[in-house]
Amino acid sequence: MTLTEKSVRNPAAVAVAVGIVLLLGLVSLGRLPVQLFPDIERPQMSVMTGWRTASPHEVESEILKPQEEVLQGLPGLEELDGAANQGMAFIRLEFALGTDMQASLLEVISRLQRVPPLPADANPPVVSLGGGFGGGGANQVLTWFFVQKLPDTPGTVEDYQQLVEERIKPAFEAVPGVSSVAVNANGGANSEDELQILIDPERAAALGVPVTDLVNRVGRANDVSGGSLAFGRRQYALRFVGRYSPEELGETVIHWRDGRPVRLRDVAQVMVARGERTNFAYQNNNPAMGIRIDRQSGANVLATLTEVKEVAAELNAGVLSQNGLTMAQSFDPSVFILRAVNLLTTNLGLGVLLAVAALWWFLRDLRATLVIALAIPISLAATLLMLAITGRSLNAISLAGLAFAVGM
């Protein structure tokens, strides 16, 4: 007996099966994650370790290589890329499709505990899912917020960076579906106090002091990474190997001229001051702090954005207003997602109507047309159910496929 014959002889069973498919399809529709485009990249994870003012060579030897050694051989790991920059080590881990990223995250954190102790002035490594601080694909960026101070608030917006780091950032990180939160202050990581050596080029030339000698001599005056020494358009990385105060450092003999010592204070000013700004954040021509929120792979963009907006509203009404600050959303992808979904949903509905109209035009039998037309919502419900079972999302591509299938 064929399936068709069985279906004709058991209409009640067929009706129950159709009802179950329709019900599960509707339930799946409400639970499917909604986003603009599907996740076509392999799951990624990033590890960022800051070592303020360290040279790339120091970052590579002291941080990057030890971390890469312990991270080799992770389950499902397909690609490992590392980069050592000025004051920063960054590692990008790319895993095979289907890898349990939560388990991989715990494994990465566990392995990083085996790394030998970091330099005293280095920051602990920060592990995040997705492209993270390396700026993974644009599809991973959920939204941007900017924090500004109100007109009557004293000081500058940078003065409130600690508040944002300690109160605002953790609140966003606690939202389900958020992988990482990065704060871009007006001034950057180098806006903290640092040791500065300001050279007087005319004085140095008059005393015959080569810049290379100055760098080598100064570099033996402390035992931590000293950042860079600026001379014109060039910067020289310094590594200090002694322990001296700025005043004592100024007494360092850097050259000899006519049998007399030339000290650092003779050609430069040594002081501790706020570092040079390396990046800036503005909103509507006003200084601000940018907050970039990245989403986890496969997260429901609309649901996550809704919770993020609720958290932002609570922060604006609470801790931010109490400190004379305000926060505004700069980029809202839900507008584009809803616009695309509504457009494709409308096209899908028109496709159904046109398909039914075409059936009626050729069959000229209302009953036969309705019987065949019932297959369309049943097929759509079954497709939504399969999307949910396979862990897919509702996006512009999947909706376009459904609209195309209905038209066929």
Question: How would you describe this structure in keywords?
Answer:
14 helices, Multidrug efflux transporter AcrB transmembrane fold, Multidrug efflux transporter AcrB TolC docking domain, DN and DC subdomains, 4-stranded antiparallel beta sheet, 408 residues, alpha+beta, 16 strands, single chain, Alpha-Beta Plaits
- Quickly count the helices: 14
How do the strands line up in the largest sheet? Answer: 2-3-1-4
Structural class determined from secondary elements? alpha+beta
By DSSP, the count of extended strands is 16
Low-pLDDT residue spans: 132-138, 233-237
CATH superfamily (homologous) name of the domain at 3-31 and 336-407: Multidrug efflux transporter AcrB transmembrane domain
Share in β-strands: 15-25%
Average of the residue pLDDT scores? 80
Biggest pleated-sheet summary: 4 strands, antiparallel
CATH top level assignment of the domain at 3-31 and 336-407: Mainly Alpha
**CATH architectural designation of the domain at 3-31 and 336-407:** Up-down Bundle
Percentage of helical residues? 40-55%
CATH topology of the domain at 3-31 and 336-407: Multidrug efflux transporter AcrB transmembrane fold
Run of helices and strands: HHEHEEHEEHEEHHEEHEEHEEEEHEHHHH
SSE blueprint and pairings:
Blueprint: H1 3-9, H2 11-31, E1 44-50, H3 56-71, E2 77-85, E3 88-95, H4 101-112, E4 126-129, E5 141-149, H5 161-173, E6 178-184, E7 193-199, H6 201-206, H7 211-218, E8 225-231, E9 234-239, H8 246-250, E10 253-257, E11 260-263, H9 264-267, E12 268-274, E13 282-283, E14 286-287, E15 289-295, H10 301-322, E16 325-331, H11 333-363, H12 366-373, H13 375-389, H14 396-407
Antiparallel strand pairs: 1-3, 1-4, 2-3, 5-15, 5-16, 6-15, 7-12, 8-9, 10-11, 13-14
Helix pairs in contact: 2-13, 5-10, 11-12, 11-14
